[in-house]
Amino acid sequence: MEKNRSYNRRDFLESGMRLSLALAVGAVGGLAIGKATASEWVWQIDPFACTQCGRCADECVLSPSAVKCVHAFDLCGYCDLCGGYLIPGANGLNTGAENQLCPTSAIHRKYIEDPYFEYVIEEDLCIGCSKCVKGCASFGNGSLHLQIKHDLCKNCNECSIARLCPSDAIKRVPASTPYLVKGGFIEP
Amino acid sequence: MATGNKNTLFLLGPLLGAIGLLAWWLTHDPSRHFEPSIPGMDNRPDSSIVLEAVTIGEHFQRFSTDFTPLPESWPRFRGADFDNISKSDIPLLDQFDASGPKVVWEKELGEGHAGAAIYQGAVYVLDYDEEARADVLRCFELTTGKELWRRWHNINLKRNHGISRTIPAVNEKYILAIGPAGHAMCLDRASGDLLWGLDIAREYGAEIPFWYTGQCPLLQGEEAILAAGGKALLIGVDCATGQVLWETPNEKGWKMSHSSVMPFEFAGAKMYVYSAVGGVAGIAADGPQKGKLLWETNKWNHSVVAPSPVCLPDGRIFLSAGYGAGSMYLQLRKNGGVFQVDILAEYAPKDGLSSEQQTPIYHDGYLYGILPKDAGAQRNELVCVHPDNIQQAVWSSGKSHRFGLGPYLLADNKLYILDDHAVLTIVKPSKTQYEQLGQVQLFEGFDAWAPFALADGYMILRDSKRMMCIDLRK
User: Fold this and answer.
1) What is d(CA A109, CA A78) in angstroms, rounded to the nearest whole number?
2) With contacts defined as CB-CB under 8 Å, which chain A residues touch B378?
3) pLDDT tens-digit map of B185-195
4) Domains (range + CATH), chain B
5) A47 and A5 co-located in one domain
6) How far apart (Å, rounded) are the C-alpha atoms in residues B261 and B269?
7) How would you classify residue B245: left for phi > 0, otherwise alpha for psi between -120 and 50, otherwise beta?
8) In this model, does residue A185 exceed pLDDT 50?
9) pTM of this prediction?
10) Could you tell me if A14 and A93 lie in one domain?
11) CB pair distance less than 8 Å for B36 and A115
C-alpha cells in the first residue's frame, strides 16, 4: 500500500520548497566563501619608481589628494640640513616659513639632540605635491616618499593618477599588503 | 503713522543687518586658526655645540715594525699632483673576469667615508673607533693589511652620515690628519711620534661643517696648510714645531667647507685656491706675501661645498657643489699685477658639468665627472665636457650606465669608477663616446664614497664600514 501511495500535489510542493531552501542556503554559503577568499586589489605607489613629478597632488579625484607623504624613520639621517624640509639655499636652518619647502607647512621639525632633528608629517595638511620627496631623494636618503592612504582613497576602478603617472609608479597591489613603505634599505 | 513706522522698520532692518555684517567683516579674522611658522619652533637650543676638550694624539700603540717598502705613493687627497691621475707606468687591469680582481686584504672600519693615503708601502687612514670613542690614525702595510701602528685621542662623536671623512697628507717627514671635529695632528712619519696638535674649532672659533670635517689637509714641504674659517680663512703651520707661520684674515666670516685647499700656479704666482662656505679665494702660497688674499669672490656661496676647485692651466676655475647649487666657472686674470676673477658661467646641476661630492678630473684637455642626483635626466651619469663648452656634454654614459657619489680616478689611461654599492667600473677616457671596458661588484657595499688611493698597482677603496685593497696589476 505504502509503495503505491500516489505522489500528490502537496508532496511536490514540499519537495520543491526543500530543494529551493537547500539551493538558497548553498548559494549564500558559496557567495560568502567566495567573498572571503577573493583577492582584492588596491592602488599603491612604488616609491622606488616614483619620479616626484607632482601630478599626484592634482590628478586625484579627491581634493586634497589621497596621496600623502610618509616618512621611513629608519632611513632618515635626522639631519639639520634636511633637503626635504628646507628650500635649497635656505637663509636659515630653522622653522621660518620662508625656509620651508613644503607649501602647506605639513612637515614638523623637532630638535632631538645635537646634531639630530626629527621630521614628522601632519597628514591633514599634506597635499601630496612631492616637493619634499624630491628634495629628500636629491640630497638625502630618500626616507620621505609618497603613498596612497587607503582610509582616504576611493579605489577607483580607473585611478586618475595612475592613468597619467609618467613612470608607471602607481600599480595595483593586494589589499592584504596595501602599502609599499620604504625601509631597511631594500629596493624591491 | 502706522504706515510710517512700517516703512521705517523696512529701512532700519536691512540697515542694521548691513551694519552687523560690516561689523562681523571688520572683526572676523579668517586666518585666526592659522599658526605662523617662525624660527625657533623646532626647540633648537641657542647653542647646542659644546666643544669637548681633547688631548690630541695622546695615545700610541705599535704592533709591528716589520713591513715591505714599495716605490710608489699616493700621498694625499687626489694624489701627488692634485689631479686624481696616477702617473705610474704599471699596467693595470682593463677588464675583470667573473671573480673580479684579487682582493689582497679587507678591514672593518668605523662608519665613515675617510679614504687612504699611501706612502712607499704604508697605508694611512683616519678612522673613528666607535667602541673606544676615538679618532684613530692607523697605519697598515699595503701588501698585507697588517696594522703597524695607531695613534689616537678620545672624543665623543655621534654618527652623522658617517663620522670620519678626511684623507691624511703624507710626505717624507710628516703625516698630517684632521679629525671629524677639526682636530689636526702632525706626526713624524718614520716613528709615528706626535709633533703637534691643533684644535681648529677652539683656536680659531671655526664652525665645523655639517656631517663633520671633510677638508683633507695639505702638506707643502715643511708647512701644513689648513682651512679654518672663524678668525682666519687659511693658516700655514710649521710642521716641525706647530708654530703658526701665517694666517689669512677672514674679514668676511667665511666658514670651513668640505672642500680641500688646492695649490695652483698662474701668471707666475703660486697660490692656494679654497672654495669656502661664503666664497672662493686665492691666497698667496710663497714669497713675502704668503698668506695674503690675492683674489676672492663671494658670488660662489653655498651652504654645503664638497668638491674641490679644478684649476685649469689657462686660469679657468671650475667650482661645483651639491644640494641644488650647481656649478660656477671662473676666469682668473692678472692685470697690472692684480688678480681678478670673472664669472664665465653659473648654472643649475642639470645644465652642465656638476658634482655633489667628488671633484672632476681634467685630463688631456677634457673634464670628466659624474653628475649629481638632481641633474634631471642625466642624473648620476658620467659625462665628458670640453672646457670651452662646459655646459654641453661631449658624451655621457647614458641612462643605462649611472653611477653615484662614489670616487673615480684615472690610471694607466683608464677611468676607474666606484658606485655607491661598490660596483667597480673601468671606462676608457675617450673624447668621443662612453666606452666601458669592464665592471664587477666587489662586495655588497653601502655608501662607497671615499676617494681611491692607488700605488704600485694596489688600490684602496672602502664603503661606509669596510676597507678593501685590491690588486689591479695585469
Assistant:
1) 10
2) none
3) 999 999 999 99
4) 51-471 (2.130.10.10)
5) no
6) 16
7) alpha
8) no
9) 0.83
10) no
11) no
